[in-house]
Amino acid sequence: MIKAGRPPGLPTASAKHTGPYAAIEATYTALLAFVAEKGVTPESFMYEEYLNSPEDTTPDKLETNIYFPLKGLCPKKKRSAGVVPADRSCLTRTGIEPTT
Questions:
Q1: pLDDT tens readout for residues 51-75
Q2: Domain extents for the chain?
Q3: Contact 50, 64 (CB under 8 A)
Q4: What's the fold here for domain 12-92?
């Protein structure tokens, strides 16, 4: 079974790209510059969330959220339901708002 979703409990840096997919590289560049400026390290993977479709949306109105999970920001602790971030304030100290 294939199921869409976000990895639970991962701190991420994200950006919303509006415009054609051919121009999305500029948003990636800006997001990675932001992450570097904050002194955090992205994981080796990222994911995108497509908010509309090129089948029924003009290229200039396409919307894509880009997420880079971040390494080692929040210490984890065990709970009966699994591993969860222990303290989300570790994100706001970097100037990155928590998203999950």
A1: 999 999 999 999 999 999 888 766 5
A2: 12-92
A3: yes
A4: Multidrug-efflux Transporter 1 Regulator Bmrr; Chain A (3.20.80)
